[in-house]
Amino acid sequence: MRRDEIVEGDALHPGDPVVIDRYSTAARFNHWMTAASLVLLALSGLALFHPALYFLTGLFGGGSNTRAIHPWIGLFLFLGYMGLFFRFWKVNLWTPTDGTWLKKLHVFLIGHEEDMPEVGRYNFAQKAVFWWMGILIMISIASGLVIWEQYFAAYTTVDQKRWAVLIHSVAAIVMICIVIVHVYGALWARGTMTAMIKGRVTGGWAWRHHRKWLRELAADPKANRGTATPAE
Amino acid sequence: MFPPLPNPSTAPGPARFGDKDLIRRSASTVTPPAQRQTEVAKLIDVSKCIGCKACQSACLEWNDQHEEVGVNTGVYDNPHDLTPASWTLMRFTEWVNPETQNLEWLIRKDGCMHCEDPGCLKACPAPGAIVQYSNGIVDFVKENCIGCGYCVKGCPFNIPRISRVDEKAYKCSLCSDRVAVGQGPACAKACPTQAIVFGTKEEMKKHADGRITDLKSRGYKNAGLYDPPGVGGTHVMYVLHHADKPEIYAGLPNNPKISPLVELWKGVAKYAGFAAIGALAVGSVLHRLVAGRSEVSREDETNAQRLAREEETKERASP
Amino acid sequence: MTNSWTDIKNTDLVVVMGGNAAEAHPCGFKWVTEAKANRGAKLIVVDPRFTRTASVADVYAPIRQGTDIAFLLGVINHCMQTDKVQWDYVRAFTNAAYVVKEGFAYQDGLFTGYDESRRDYNRSTWDYEIGPDGYAVVDETLQNPRCVWNLLKQHVATYTPEMVERICGTPKDKFVQIARMIAECASPTRTMTSMYALGWTQHSKGSQNIRAMAMLQLILGNIGVRGGGMNALRGHSNIQGLTDIGLMSNLIPGYLTIPTEREPSFDAYMATRGFKPLRPGQMSYWQNYRKFFVSFQKAMWGEAATADNAFAYDWLPKLDVPAYDVLRAFELMHQGKMNGYFCQGFNPLLSFPNRKKITTALSKLKFLVVMDPLQTETARFWENHGANNDVSPAAIQTEVIELPTTCFAEDEGSLVNSGRWLQWHWAGGTPPGEAKHDTWIMAQIHLRLKELYRKEGGPVPEPIVNLDWRYKDPNEPSPEELAKELNGYTTADLTDPNDPTKVVIAKGKQVPGFAVLRDDGSTACGCWIYSGSFTEAGNQMARRDTTDPDETGAYSKWAWSWPANRRILYNRASADRSGKPWDPSRKLLEWDGTKWTGYDVPDIAPTAKPEEVGPFIMNPEGVSRLFTRGMMRDGPFPVHYEPFESPVVNVVAPKVRGNPVARVFRNDMEQFGDAKEFPYAATSYRLTEHFHFWTKHAHANAVLQPEFFVEISEQLAKEKGIKPGGTVRVWSKRGSVTAKAVVTKRIRPLVCDGKTVHIVGIPLHWGFTGAARKGFGPNSLTPFVGDANIETPEYKAFLVDIEPVAGPVA
Amino acid sequence: MNMELSRRGFLAGAGAGVAGTTLGAFGFGDVEAAHAASIRPFKLANTAEARNTCTYCSVACGIILYSKGDLKKGEKAEIIHIEGDADHPTNRGTLCPKGSALLDVVHSKTRTLYPQIRKAGSDKFERVSWEQALDRIARLMKDDRDRNLVLKNADGVTVNRWTTTGFLAASATTNETAWATYKVVRSTGMVVFDNQARV
């Protein structure tokens, strides 16, 4: 019995409508903690990136505090992302379907999802977000340590620091862009937010966006919590 | 000799320049004063310097700095590098002149060059933490400094140092407090041989010409003034006996400029970044308007129910 | 200094040899850089090390320490051979033409009259031929083979450039280049100045080092002129003053001398002083000796010094030996012949040679009193500081009393700089804790002694109880009162010798100058050369007028300089025999037909005719001396002698070790090392970041040069496997020190007489008190031997060995 | 004479012109201008000045002591800064690394503050009063002099020589201190008497 697309805790409850558990409480908590750190990092980072946004340091109790806190939030983000990574890396692996899906991206964008190949728990775009964030967070952490004046000033040359500060800011920008796409996606496809808020989605949502995943859930006795009792 | 400055007056007097004379202020836009003050400059004549460290001593004393007592590491340079307390430092180089085979002991007073185009100020994210006065003095404002160390990356001469005590950046202020009352910097006042002199930038250049002529007459055919154009000129200049190779003076940069990386980071990156973010935001809105929302239909729900039921029965059917 | 710091700007050539002005006197050195910048003057530095002075020099030549005389006589030889001599000056103002007695000779490093057992000379033949007229015989034609000029020519002939290279290790081409540059200054319109310091004095033949240069300067006509002279940079801020006031065993203020046992009476004493002129019409100023002496006695004992008691002549001690200098003092201490010792602002534990001997000597005292503003090592010589002062307190029975004194910032008074300027200063701060002025402390000691002698009696109390102590507050004489005493005042009305009814100066007035001092007790004067410093016109030392007509650098209205506010000594020699300046552009004095006019106070009577009176008025000859007669114990001409510890044998006098009449005590002889055991030539010196052992108490200076180190060449470091910044042990026959190693190109091996000589440089600023890191001083290594004439220890040339050691565990 | 502080100094002389223009350069624009945030107040304002001479070498540079509180007014004065005297002909306001840090030696942590006596064999100093210290010194001196003063030599010549106690004088003390010292020391017949001239 194939269950490539199922994550521990996914469950299907028949009824009208069919209700599916997509994210456990732990998973949701992990996601939102990561999301929060990202937002705080963006705010504090941007505050020191562009004078026009320096006022944002007010949120963190002034420039010095902003400078002091930012790296620590970075570490927090790192932990958060690690959690999500170990939770979801399997279901984010590349499948041939992703290729065909990508080819028909324009169809997806104009909303004709019914004409798209059936996808599993995540479609190509979601996987891209997952992996890119991973890479960028790694880059930001590495370059961030180099410019963490307070503790690591001594270990690198000024020129290395100059590279680091440039790389760090570019990586940050890209991340912010990805986050925007990520959030917009969630808002765009109605019924998605509930997944990260309540943890549940309707069968219809799954049928429309992640049919492959739905099929596996339905076909899986452990996941499919049928109501009818077996006959003698 | 170069006319010495008078003894300072102990009668409290007004400052000769202030905020109204700012031409640059970090992370802020200022409207420069209509009339710029005469530019001042400190001229360091390396060929007259006897490396006595009076400038270091005077700097520590005037600025009430407390440097740690270090160790000897086999050289005369003490401390071994600029520190948050030591804003100036004699750097000693033993150089054998390949042409004459004579040993030359090159001694250079290191410290802030007070660039006309200051990299530290350009890199600084904290409004008003670094300021530049119309007389050319580049000064750090402790109260506004956040200790991020960007100035270190911005400086082409590797001058600013961040204190581990209060996480603030420090460097030579050209004794702005003395200049403000018509005095010269403490180092220039102290320098026993007047290897350091202070005045208007024009006077300093004129004085330098005289020195260079003298040096040429003594066989230093490459004697010259170090006033690097790469940073728009500096308000601390050197007379060098070998101006053709500044790097032999403990690595004085040959044609210094603000690192292209910093330019990129503080320039293109900033604008491109915001452009990208903006574009995406707009894009999303447009997409929403054009493509509308992706809705789950009733049909989808029934399909899901059907699927769930069929599979369930399949399972029951199987033995 | 014969000239002044500010006068150096007038020179054409600066020779820094036996000194390191840029490091030891940076602000005075300014005037060298001024001369370079404004006159295009050149700077020559001759030194074993490439010093910070050398770093701004036009020409630098290395030299092995202790061979300066060979170098200088080599230059004199060059000048004589190439006829680079300012003949008019030499003929008119030196004793070149004087004929020397038959019997005087020089051979194999010794002059006639040497007595090995006494390590001394019988100097009777070292003098002029005296003619029937009672005057010295001269031969203006310089034909007489026994005239000074010809004897000198013959004496220096040995010192060819090749010989100089063999002895000094100075590359021949460098030597010749320098000799030529110097010789140019024989022209009346070119002057050279000599700047030297302890690099010349701290040798067993220190005074002869200086003589050699003085002779050269005379041959070039550079004494008494602007931008010329013999300029001793001197050490401490008032070492000139302390010497002027004669705080030495054998001195009376103003370079008068303490009686010896051979002078039982005042007349006997006077008979050997107050020299008669050796040539007609000369001033021979010491003829006034009696006036100065009597006035001094009056300043000491006031009313109690009268003609009847020979002005208290017997209250002065009489010496049995030439001098009880510091070396003798510590020798006596070491022999257990001393009980008490006072150190007033002095740190002998680090200042005197052979520290082991110093510690032992101090340990044999009953009591030691230290008066100092800082916690000196000497006051703690009994305190164990591990390797830095390895003693056991319990074993040391000396009672030590430490008295806190004020420092410069808290007291008022005058200091004499090397240019002989007496400058007054004022206190600016309140003394810390219970610190007191030295004047208060000395007064307290005196008053207590006086009281004890009044109460208890005792041997010869008179000089103590009669000491003139009539101060407003006997407990603390004020600086003004003391300064006025030094200047001198009248104790009775001074009447015109020609008209006794006419009072020239009333009783109780400050004297205007030493010219009015008398030998009948009607004047009192603490220090005759200071007469004029605090007159009825007020405190001349406090003058602050910076005017300087024609910017000669004289500043004659700034403070006051002895003698008689004269800024350049022997200034009459700045003009030729007829009184015209040698160099009109550098005029100092000029004879206008009736009197001397110019920028300075003439050295001779303002109306003394130029053809008649010689410029060197303190000499009975009226001229300067290329040949010093019997006035120096080790010879009328300088001779190259090796240091007592030398890496090579003396090429010109192989049989002589060191200076044959240098001050050596028997048991110290055995403490000399030889080149087999200690192969490297060491020298000690100061660094610009520090001043002796004081600035290690100043935090900033401790920062600028924190730790004791020694300097060696890259070659020696390679040979010995010494790493830059590594730790080394350096030891001599007398002791051992550990230090950081500074490996440098500025010190290079020299080749002397075919032998490679490595030099080890040892700076002297560290001890075991203060803000800097604990360290050693070179005096743990240096030999206990003194100069033949002035007993200055030989700190600049001795032998050591060196090896790398494991660094201290931090 | 005492403390007139000629501001004239060399500005009156040749320097005036140039120095003038130099001063102008520091922007005598608008004198009402207040201190900028970056410029700290001039720390010598309202201090008392005293002319002094550097205590170290014999170049004898002119210095000015700046203090809080004025000795001349009989106040307690604490020196807060020391700087070269621009009016001084030799140093023209310049100072070497030692002179520039004179303040650190004046306020050195290792200055002596009160009389101390270290008894024979002891391993520490003990604080005593001036009275105790001075009485003790006078006693020790007199006892030694009474015992060891040489009145006459072998040939019966009066020599009044005291060789068992010696005095080493400083070389940074004033002439006036030196003279007081000379008088006191010589009056006792002490001959083991020397100063720093040799080293």
TrEMBL record, chain A:
Membrane topology annotation: Multi-pass membrane protein
Ranges of residues in domain Cytochrome b561 bacterial/Ni-hydrogenase: 22-199
Presence of the UniProt keyword Transport in the record: yes
Key word Metal-binding present: yes
Record SUPFAM superfamilies: Transmembrane di-heme cytochromes
GO biological process: anaerobic respiration; formate oxidation; respiratory electron transport chain
Chain ranges passing through the membrane: 32-57, 69-89, 129-151, 163-189
Subcellular location: Cell membrane
GO molecular function: electron transfer activity; formate dehydrogenase (NAD+) activity; formate dehydrogenase (quinone) activity; metal ion binding
Gene Ontology cellular component annotations, sorted alphabetically: formate dehydrogenase complex; plasma membrane
Keywords annotated in UniProt: Cell membrane, Electron transport, Heme, Iron, Membrane, Metal-binding, Transmembrane, Transmembrane helix, Transport
Required cofactor names: heme
Family: Belongs to the formate dehydrogenase gamma subunit family.
PANTHER family assigned: FORMATE DEHYDROGENASE, NITRATE-INDUCIBLE, CYTOCHROME B556 FDN SUBUNIT, FORMATE DEHYDROGENASE, NITRATE-INDUCIBLE, CYTOCHROME B556(FDN) SUBUNIT
Protein name: Formate dehydrogenase subunit gamma
Annotated source species: Rhodoplanes serenus
Automatic annotation (TrEMBL), chain B:
Protein localization: Cell membrane
GO biological process terms, semicolon-separated: cellular respiration; formate oxidation
Domain of life: Bacteria
Compositionally skewed regions (Basic and acidic residues) per UniProt: 295-319
4Fe-4S ferredoxin-type domain ranges (all copies): 40-59, 103-135, 136-165
Gene Ontology terms for molecular function: 4 iron, 4 sulfur cluster binding; metal ion binding
A Pfam family: Fer4_11
InterPro entries: 4Fe4S_Fe-S-bd (IPR017896), 4Fe4S_Fe_S_CS (IPR017900), FDH_Electron_Transfer_Unit (IPR051555), Formate_DH_bsu_Proteobacteria (IPR006470), Formate_DH_C_sf (IPR038384), Formate_DH_Fe-S_su (IPR014603), Formate_DH_TM (IPR015246)
Keywords for the protein's UniProt record, in alphabetical order: 4Fe-4S, Cell membrane, Electron transport, Iron, Iron-sulfur, Membrane, Metal-binding, Repeat, Transmembrane, Transport
Cofactor(s) required for function per UniProt: [4Fe-4S] cluster
Cofactor note: Binds 4 [4Fe-4S] clusters per subunit.
Disordered, as annotated region: 294-319
Residues bound to [4Fe-4S] cluster 1: 49, 52, 55, 191
Entry keyword annotation includes Chaperone: no
Binding residues annotated for [4Fe-4S] cluster 3, in chain numbering: 112, 115, 120, 155
GO cellular component term, pick one: plasma membrane
Residues the record lists as binding [4Fe-4S] cluster 2: 59, 172, 175, 187
CDD domains in UniProt: FDH-N
SUPFAM superfamilies, A to Z: 4Fe-4S ferredoxins
Positions that bind [4Fe-4S] cluster 4: 124, 145, 148, 151
NCBIfam families linked: FDH-beta (TIGR01582)
The name this protein goes by in its record: Formate dehydrogenase subunit beta
Taxonomic source organism: Rhodoplanes serenus
Lineage: Bacteria, Pseudomonadati, Pseudomonadota, Alphaproteobacteria, Hyphomicrobiales
Gene designation: fdxH
Automatic annotation (TrEMBL), chain D:
Gene3D superfamilies named among the record's database cross-references: 3.40.50.740, ADC-like domains
A Pfam family per the record: Molybdop_Fe4S4
NCBIfam families in the record: TAT_signal_seq
Cofactor(s) essential for the protein: [4Fe-4S] cluster
Highest taxon, organism lineage: Bacteria
Organism: Rhodoplanes serenus
BP GO annotations: anaerobic respiration
GO cellular component terms given for this protein: cell envelope
Family per similarity comment: Belongs to the prokaryotic molybdopterin-containing oxidoreductase family.
Cell compartments where the protein resides: Cell envelope
Protein name: Formate dehydrogenase-O major subunit
Entries under InterPro entries matching the protein: Mopterin_OxRdtase_4Fe-4S_dom, MopterinOxRdtase_cofactor_BS, TAT_signal, TAT_signal_bac_arc
Single Gene Ontology MF annotation: 4 iron, 4 sulfur cluster binding
Keywords: 4Fe-4S, Iron, Iron-sulfur, Metal-binding, Oxidoreductase
